[in-house]
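Quick illustration for those who missed Monday's session on complexes.
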Amino acid sequence: MTGIALVLGAVLGFASIKFKVEGDPLVEKIDAILPQTQCGQCGFPGCRPYATAIADGEAEINQCPPGGEEGIRKLADLLGREFKPLSEEHGVEKPKSVAVIDEATCIGCTLCIQACPVDAIVGAAKQLHTIVAAECTGCELCLAPCPVDCITMEAITETVDTWKWRYPVVEIKAA
Amino acid sequence: MLRKLFKFHGGVKPQTNKTQSTTEPIASVPLPDRLVIPLHQAVGGHPRPLVQPGDHVLKGQRIGGADGNLSSAVHASTSGIVRDVAQAVMPHTSGLTTLSVIIEPDGEDRWCELEKVNYRSTPPDELRDFLRDAGVVGLGGAVFPSYAKLKPGKEGKLKTLVINGAECEPFITCDDMLMRERASDMLKGIVAMRYMLQAEEVLIGIEDNKPEAVASVQAAIKASGETGIEAVAIPTRYPAGGAKQLIRVLTGIEVPHGRRSTDFGVQCFNVGTAFSIFEALEHGRPLISRLVTVAGNVTAPRNYDVLIGTPMDHLVRLAGPRPDTDRYIMGGPMMGVRMPGFDVPVVKATNCVLVGSATMFPAPPPEMPCIRCGECAKACPADLAPFEMYWFSRSKNFGKAQEYHLFDCIECGCCSFVCPSHIPLVDYFRFSKSEIWSREREKESADGARDRFEFKNFRQEREKQEKAEKLAAKAAATREKVATEGAATPAAADGEAAPKPKPSGDDAKRALIEAAMEKARQQKAQVAPKNTDHLAPDVEADIAAIDARRNAAPARAADTPDA
Ligand code: SF4
Ligand code: SF4
Ligand code: SF4
Ligand code: SF4
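Prediction with iron/sulfur cluster bound:
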């Protein structure tokens, strides 16, 4: 009896690992739309948990401020639901920005490193910390823990590499 | 002469307006007061600055070093003092700035020491590095670093090397004049390229509206005694100078959507590029000047040999702009882009400064609805369906636009040229392309963020587990100890097994922070950095900036905000 139980237990354990890796295709699709800012404004600890909640019908599709209107539209399309404006209690859509540490003030406490969900801050205990701008998602989670308030958010400015051609001004004449 | 030529799909015949600027020979330009040399002038990575304000530079000295696996060096175009390494408006529609080296010429125009190369005795890799550091890029307008294209491909050799002297865009005549006046030097560059690519044959395609250029190149080939090189006159039809179109006309090879000509044993270079390869190999001179056509709303259209970094208005003044001039266009009327100002510098991509006015280029009639007449598809040299791509670009359905091969569009402007509804089709395609690129970038960074987020969670999970295991082991050890010693107080065991002592309340936390800050301050005062010797100028500039900020800080660091 114990033998069978052990074997079955192992099989079940294996199965659960295997299925976890493959993931739910719907959750994957939703997660692919979410911006991966990992800010938690949606009320879930990261984008993936929010995606799971949407898939399970436990959350509305308008709770992610970084994704903004466009994100909500895409979710509505994917899930065949009605579009609704961003829920105010979860926040507002802001221009994308990155966090900047004032090196002069940083005391090297590592609190921000622990807070950053995407490991975008480098530094070690008592060393000055720096944010890798390319990896920062702008989630603002590092602002609150900083004891000396040396982190600020700076909006990303356009460079020639990120510049986009504008939508042509259309003048349609009645034909 | 009896070579069989082929036709490419579509194309248009706009007025060429080329004769005006070919009556006079190539002229030189007096030194301007100031040269603004952007560091990023070619496709690929941003070169890093190698000079700093106050440095004296010589003509041909490298001021920007190639960075990354696709990048091209930048050089001082004359001798003088570096006044600044700063952001300056670049010749780009956006009007955005880019890091540039600003040089005040000393008037001596003195070359630095030049190093030439014998391409036959130099290993191919070294030769490519040499051309990268000489800043040689495609001068047809695409500014793709040439060294990256000078690889013979998988088979170790190339079938056909196509040299592009078609110059199909109206008004532009810089390649024409180059072929007329510098054919034999250009030919030496072509011979070097042929050697590097191990090409069987070389075809130089020139539109038949440039008979002088054809004759001049043919004479140069004859004089050189080279075989397997042929200058071919091709029918004048825009855009015969597009790489895929020219290859089609000369070889009959139709490069399919999404494929590259090298897959078919063909590589294509511009005539100006061949000339700069000659200059680099034979004289050791890096790419510091290029031929530029000044045409349009000027009294004396002409071609000039212009130092890179020369302000456009300094150049245009020589040709006598008419008083109603209100814009400069870089490139021609079909593919050119409007400049954000008059003092932007001439760069490696500048083949023409087309001077315009409201009367010369009147605003297009208002856009009307697409009537799906199909004219655009008939004119498209890339064999696309512009009206479909327009429809989906307009409605921002980018996925669909891509299905219609949006990225095969070469932005030649034929479709907009023929459209009876005056739809600025190319503007829509440029808009769509840049939106798609930006989405790609966003997606990439989102994917990266997801991976790092998942990894962090995994790491935290693992750390938690390890900690728990350690604690459990410790607790077990203590329990054992307690059991064996018998008399120990249980409180000790509890204390040790508790998860990390927490300071109770805000005061304790604040005290800790104060202590840490004090310590940090002391350390900062003691420690002098030891790794500040032999740094690149940009790193030094960064350090100076950080130091300045640090010095301004103590006042702010002192008033501790609420934790
Ligand atoms: S609100 Fe933040 S955490 Fe939630 S889905 Fe949006 S980006 Fe992700
Ligand atoms: S650095 Fe700060 S704002 Fe940027 S991702 Fe990390 S926690 Fe978020
Ligand atoms: S030429 Fe203009 S009107 Fe005709 S199908 Fe093309 S876009 Fe539409
Ligand atoms: S601009 Fe693009 S779509 Fe229009 S004709 Fe040229 S290649 Fe075709």
